[in-house]
Backbone:
């Protein structure tokens, strides 16, 4: 027996929209799987399958079937979409302040014995000045390239 939170009754419009998602092929796999689960959960179209059967058909778990149903009842079609992150999982090393330091270092006099600042020298200098804990020469190069591209536009 399904609880009140995970019983799905789709209207004709909702059902056709879900059918479009499933058959179109232009959506992420997760969205298509959720749409399939909702179509199978629809109690307006008999025979109604059990959640365990739906999980097997959709190659997922019963918990996922239950969660999709609860989220759909709570948020509607918005529950099919991916949740956007508020912050990136890894904070960027090169912020505007670090980028400004990279430019300042590259415009200053190079160390003795060198004609110019190399990417490796710039990376070492950033670490020596405790601007960043670690940074690779590739990251320094990308920051300079981004800055040069921004100034040329």
Residues:
């Amino acid at each position: 027996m399904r609880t009140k939170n995970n019983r799905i009754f789709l209207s004709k419009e909702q059902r056709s929209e879900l059918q479009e998602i499933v058959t179109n092929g232009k959506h992420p796999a997760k969205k298509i799987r959720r749409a399939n689960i909702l179509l199978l959960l629809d109690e307006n179209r008999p025979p109604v399958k059990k959640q365990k059967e739906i999980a097997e058909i959709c190659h997922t778990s019963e918990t996922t079937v239950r969660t999709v149903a609860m989220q759909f009842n709570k948020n509607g079609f918005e529950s099919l979409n991916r949740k956007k992150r508020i912050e990136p999982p890894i904070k960027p090393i090169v912020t505007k302040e670090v980028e400004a330091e990279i430019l300042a270092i590259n415009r200053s006099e190079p160390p003795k014995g060198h004609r110019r600042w190399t990417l490796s020298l710039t990376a070492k200098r950033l670490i020596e000045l405790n601007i960043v804990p670690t940074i690779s020469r590739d990251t320094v190069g990308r920051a300079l390239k981004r800055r040069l591209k921004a100034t040329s536009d």
User: Anything to note?
Assistant: The mean pLDDT is 87. The radius of gyration is 27 Å.
